[in-house]
Specification:
alpha+beta, 5'-nucleotidase,  domain 2, 6 helices
Length: 250
């Protein structure tokens, strides 16, 4: 009898505990910032620093190689800038060389230009700072009506990096929009060079994701920029860009 009662009691305890579920609730959360700069060097593990030193020296030797010289400091800003014009022109030139025929225009997102190119020596490391992402150059074929919409987006945000297209921004609207000097034909397909990030319609450039055809070049944007700078340097030229009014604001 005692065994039977003990067995029943065990079953009751098991059933009660098996049916109960613990729920964890966050009642408080705090966060803080830890600066990763010269102020934290004293906290570094010296043994680990010594272990990494040969690797750092090897990387520094590669990154510090000078591949060209910038004639002036190039910064990125809207509606057009020396840095965005330079990058967009290089995109279009590289895409034209890849296709073997002219590419109508190119688009560079200002948010993707992550540093300034100062006047003077340009190192490989500086190009890595400018383009720290593994983005690829792609060529899209997009209808003219979508490019007109894209120009209107440019006008609303104040401008983006581009080459081949010209426009005037008045009251946040795009006017006098042309490609190759001609008004955009809404039904025509235009070739557009850009990076694979923008080609996905990112940075709110949804029209770039609405292409009719796409070609992946397999060329890394960073490599395209490095090759361009090296080639211009071999010709004895400085790296420079001009403000030509491709996007003007009135």
């Amino acid at each position: 009898m005692k065994f039977k009662n003990l067995f029943i009691l065990s079953l009751l305890v098991l059933s009660v505990t098996s049916c109960s579920h613990k729920t964890w609730v966050i009642t408080k959360a705090t966060s803080g910032k830890i600066a990763i700069d010269s102020t934290t060097e004293s906290l570094a593990d010296k043994d680990y620093e010594a272990y990494l030193l040969p690797v750092k020296q090897k990387i520094d030797a590669q990154m510090n190689v000078v591949i060209g010289r910038a004639a002036v400091t190039m910064k990125g800003h809207a509606p057009e800038s020396l840095l965005s014009n330079f990058n967009a022109d290089v995109y279009r030139e590289a895409a034209t060389a890849f296709l073997g025929k002219p590419v109508d225009m190119s688009v560079v997102n200002l948010g993707g230009l992550r540093t300034v190119i100062p006047a003077g020596n340009i190192t490989i490391g500086k190009v890595f700072e400018l383009m720290p992402f593994e983005n690829e150059l792609v060529i899209l074929w997009i209808r003219g009506d979508k490019l007109i919409e894209l120009a209107q987006f440019f006008a609303r945000v104040g401008g983006e990096g581009e080459s081949g297209l010209r426009m005037v921004i008045r009251n946040k609207k795009a006017e006098e929009v042309t490609i190759g000097g001609l008004p955009i034909d809404p039904a025509k397909l235009y070739s557009v060079a850009t990076n694979d990030y923008c080609a996905g319609g990112n940075d709110n450039m949804v029209q770039l994701g609405q292409y009719e055809k796409r070609t992946n070049t397999g060329l890394k944007i960073r490599s395209v920029l490095i090759d361009y700078i090296k080639n211009e340097t071999k010709k004895g030229k400085l790296i420079q860009a001009t403000l030509d009014g491709r996007i003007s604001r009135q």
